Amino acid sequence: MRFPTDKIVWFLLVVSLILYFVDYFMFGRAGEIGFSFMSNVAFLPVYVLFVTLMIERVLKEREREAIIKKLNMVIGVFFSEIGTELLHRLLAFFPDGVELSKRLRPTPQWKRHDFEEARQFIKSTHADLDARVGDLGSLKEFLSEKKGVMLTLLENPNLLEHDVFTDLLWAVMHLAEELQARRSLQGLAERDLDHLSGDLKRAHTHLLTEWITYMQHLHDDYPYLYSLAVRMNPMDPNAHAEVS
After folding, report:
1. Rounded distance, CA 20 to CA 34, Å?
2. Cα 86 from Cα 143, distance rounded (Å)
3. Which long-range contacts (CB under 8 A, 24 or more apart) does 97-100 make?
4. pLDDT in tens, 153-186
5. What is the Cα–Cα distance from 136 to 131, expressed in whole angstroms?
6. How far is CA 78 from each of CA 7, 38, 165, rounded to the nearest angstrom?
């Protein structure tokens, strides 16, 4: 049963007055009671300010944690539906991605510093993707099929809390639109292929960075999901779900 707020306020005021009268009739020190009352009233604004700030901070922190949890679920949907498969497909556009593939193979033994080293490696590496060496037609078809999923994810208001993931979605969406805008992907001019190579690289760099962060999230919070993600590593051409 819930009581109206105004009734609670009046109840507390009445209780306070009763206690002051009891104090006066038992000890008869009106001056001390008045002094104590004014001291409490003088401190009341400071007390309210302190309590309000603390409660506001706690509520904001809880709200932020709830948003991050929901956002991680959105990121999980992205990698389940698009990201993991897209990373695997983009491997075909590396003229020589052996070193990149070897360095980005998380294991169950990885610690926090291993993920940080992987992020630093991604930032420092200059692996170039080449639109000439992969199957642009197959990539175009895959991204076309997943466009609806990406548009739904972009509508999620929680993305406002995660600029990096938003940039990733826009980069992948732009790549999809570039491929769809061309009637044919055969016989493209060299300058056009260079342009597409830049779009591939932009999307892949954002994708790798967010993938490592997502893998660390699974490692810390969902070990059973991390185990499957390690076995299905899109950077490993020989990856398989079976436990060996």
Report:
1. 10
2. 8
3. 97/127, 99/125, 99/127, 100/125, 100/127, 100/235
4. 888 877 766 788 889 999 999 999 999 999 899 8
5. 7
6. 50, 60, 10
